[in-house]
Automatic annotation (TrEMBL):
Pfam family membership, one: NAD_binding_8
Protein name per Swiss-Prot or TrEMBL: FAD-dependent oxidoreductase
Domain of life, per lineage: Bacteria
PANTHER family xrefs: FAD/NAD(P)-BINDING OXIDOREDUCTASE FAMILY PROTEIN, FAD_NAD(P)-BINDING OXIDOREDUCTASE FAMILY PROTEIN
InterPro entries: FAD/NAD-bd_sf
Residue stretches in coiled coil: none
Length: 308
C-alpha cells in the first residue's frame, strides 16, 4: 500500500460518506470495518421474519445539502420518503451497501491500535496484522470506542471523545405468522419499558408480521447485561398488555443490544482534528447524534483532509 492512501476506520454512514467524498476527489481510500457488513447503526438482520432493521428505522433531514443528497439517493431507488421521514429500500443496510459500491473495504477487521510514524499511520488489527502506512486517517466510530483507540496516539482528542455519554438501547423483534392488531397504544407506564412499538406487515420478503419493540434508554441501561432471552421475555410481557386478549407466543423472536446507540458532544463541532498529522475523528456524536449529523461529519472530515 502506498503512503498516499487514506485509511478510514468504520463503515457506517460517517465513514462511507467520507470515503465517497475522498474517492470523488481522486484519493485512494481503504475502509476498515469490524463487522461482516457495512452500515453500523443502520444494520439489518436476516431472520425467519425476513430482513429486520436493528437500529434506525427511519430518519429526519432538514439540512439543505443533505436534502439534496437524499434527492439523488431517492432517484437512484435507494430511499423512500414518507412524510418527513426517509427509509432505505428495501431495508436500511441496503442503503449503505449501495453507497459503499466498490470502495475498498476490509470487513471483519477490527482496528485495535494506532501509531503515527514518520512514514504515516500504522494500524494494527485484532489478529496482530499491521496495515499501512497511510498518509491520512479518519476514525469514524462511536465516541467511547474512538476514545479508547485514540488514548495513546492522540490523548487530547481521546479526552474530548470520552466526554460523550452514549446511551444504550435494546431492540426486540417479534414475528407472527398470523397478524395481530393492538387494542391500545403504549401507556405512560408501559413507556418506561418500551419507548416505541412498530408493526410491519407481511410482504413478499417478509413472511411474518413483525413487531419491533425499542426499549427505553432507562430500561436498557438498567438491563444492559441481561441475557437476550430475558429481554425478549420481559418486553414480550409488556407488549402483551397492548391487547385485550393475550396474543399467542411469537413464532420468531430475537433481541439486539446497542451498547452505544445515541449521544453527542455538548457543543457540536462536526469533527475533531489534528491536521498536522493528517488525523480526523468524525461521527454522528460530533454533531447532534443522528444520521444527518453522521453524513455532515463524514463530509466535513473529507473536506478537511482535502484542504489540508
Ligand atoms: C436503536 C437506534 C435508533 C436510532 N434512531 C435514529 C433515528 O430515528 N433517527 C436518526 O437520525 N438516527 C437514529 N439513530 C442514530 C443513527 O443510526 C446514527 O446516528 C448513525 O447511523 C451513526 O453513523 P456512524 O457512521 O457515525 O456510526 P456507526 O453507525 O456506529 O458506524 C461505526 C462503524 O464502525 C465500526 N467500528 C467500530 N469500532 C471499530 C474498530 N475498532 N475497527 C473497525 N471498525 C469499527 C462499527 O462496527 C460500525 O460499523 C439510531 C440509532 C440506534 C442504535
Amino acid at each position: 500500500m502506498s503512503s498516499s492512501q487514506v485509511a478510514i476506520i468504520g463503515a457506517g454512514m460517517t465513514g462511507i460518506t467520507a470515503a465517497r467524498s475522498l474517492n470523488n476527489a481522486g484519493y485512494t481510500v481503504q475502509l476498515f470495518e469490524k463487522s461482516r457488513g457495512s452500515g453500523g447503526r443502520l444494520a439489518s438482520n436476516r431472520s425467519a421474519m425476513g430482513r429486520v432493521n436493528l437500529g434506525t428505522q427511519a430518519f429526519h433531514a432538514d439540512q439543505a445539502e443533505f436534502l439534496a443528497e437524499l434527492d439523488h439517493w431517492q432517484h437512484a431507488g435507494w430511499l423512500k420518503q414518507t412524510e418527513q421521514q426517509w427509509t432505505g429500500i428495501p431495508y436500511m443496510s441496503a442503503l449503505t451497501r449501495n453507497l459503499l459500491g466498490e470502495l475498498n473495504t476490509l470487513f471483519s477487521c477490527e482496528i485495535r491500535q494506532l501509531s503515527h510514524t514518520q512514514q504515516g499511520w500504522l494500524l494494527l488489527d485484532q489478529h496482530g496484522q499491521q496495515h499501512g502506512p497511510f498518509a491520512q486517517l479518519i476514525v469514524a466510530i462511536p465516541a467511547p470506542q474512538a476514545s479508547t483507540l485514540l488514548s495513546n496516539c492522540a490523548p487530547d482528542l481521546a479526552a474530548c471523545a470520552a466526554s460523550v455519554v452514549m446511551q444504550p438501547t435494546w431492540m426486540v423483534a417479534l414475528g407472527f405468522k398470523e397478524p395481530l392488531t393492538a387494542s391500545q397504544p403504549l401507556s405512560p407506564m408501559q413507556q418506561r419499558i418500551i419507548a416505541e412499538v412498530r408493526p410491519s406487515a407481511i410482504a413478499a420478503e417478509q413472511p411474518m408480521q413483525t413487531w419491533l419493540l425499542r426499549a427505553s434508554v432507562a430500561w436498557s441501561t438498567e438491563h444492559l447485561e441481561d441475557e437476550p432471552a430475558q429481554v425478549i421475555h420481559r418486553l414480550s410481557n409488556c407488549f402483551a398488555e397492548l391487547f385485550d386478549t393475550a396474543p399467542p407466543e411469537a413464532d420468531s423472536a430475537f433481541a439486539h443490544r446497542w451498547r452505544y446507540a445515541l449521544g453527542a458532544l455538548e457543543q457540536p463541532l462536526n469533527t475533531l482534528a489534528d491536521l498536522s498529522r493528517g488525523l480526523v475523528v468524525a461521527g454522528d456524536w460530533c454533531g447532534q447524534g443522528d444520521l444527518q449529523s453522521a453524513w455532515c461529519s463524514g463530509r466535513h472530515a473529507a473536506q478537511q483532509l482535502i484542504n489540508s
